[in-house]
Amino acid sequence: MGYSRTVRAGPWVFVAGTTGTVEGKVVAPGDAYAQATQALANIAAALALAGAGLADVVQTRLSVTDISRWEEVGRAHREAFGDVRPVTALVEVSGLIDPEMLVEIEAVAYSG
């Protein structure tokens, strides 16, 4: 699993910015969809460790380094959440900590 810092505060679970990494390595350099898919899988794993799941997510924030790739990232988000419709913000940032990273996702869940 990629590193995801998670904090539980009562019924709330906060997952810090999570990227498409596995064991510290960026997956699929150049592929925003694959990186978003992996980031969301990392978030799902982090939520599970905190006793929550994707169905409990009420908010996501997606940061992308190229806003023109929003459809790829949006498709991965839609596939991960299905009928769950968290409020979502998607913003373009000038860069992430590793230049190969194209996407970073934060999540807030309510599991009470």
Task: Compile the SSE list and pairings.
Elements: E1 6-9, E2 12-19, E3 21-22, E4 25-26, H1 32-49, E5 57-64, H2 70-81, E6 87-92, E7 103-110
Parallel strand pairs: 5-6
Antiparallel strand pairs: 1-2, 2-7, 3-4, 5-7
Helix pairs in contact: 1-2
Describe what this molecule looks like in 3D:
The protein has helices spanning 32-49, 70-81, and strands spanning 6-9, 12-19, 21-22, 25-26, 57-64, 87-92, 103-110. It is an alpha+beta fold and 112 residues long. Helix 2 links the parallel strand 5 (57-64) and strand 6. The protein has a single domain, classed as 2-Layer Sandwich (60s Ribosomal Protein L30, Chain: A). The longest helix has 18 residues, at 32-49. Helix 1 packs parallel to helix 2 (70-81). It is globular. It contains 2 helices and 7 strands. The strands form 2 sheets. A 5-stranded mixed β-sheet has the order 1-2-7-5-6. The chain is 27% helix and 34% strand.
Q: What characteristics describe this protein?
A:
alpha+beta, 112 residues, 60s Ribosomal Protein L30, Chain: A, five-stranded mixed sheet
In short:
This protein is an alpha+beta fold.
Coarse shape: globular
Which CATH architecture?
2-Layer Sandwich
Q: Tell me the total number of β-strands.
A: 7
Q: Tell me the radius of gyration.
A: 13 Å
Here the CATH topology equals: 60s Ribosomal Protein L30, Chain: A
CATH class bucket: Alpha Beta
Count helical runs. Answer: 2
Query: What portion of residues is helical?
Result: 25-40%
What is the total domain count? 1
How far apart lie the N and C ends?
A: 25 Å
Low-confidence stretches: none
| Average pLDDT reading | 95
Derived from helix and strand composition plus strand pairing, the structural class reads alpha+beta
**What would CATH call the homologous superfamily?**
RutC-like
Q: What is the H/E order?
A: EEEEHEHEE
- Describe the largest sheet: 5 strands, mixed
Strand content: 25-35%
Strand order of the largest sheet: 1-2-7-5-6
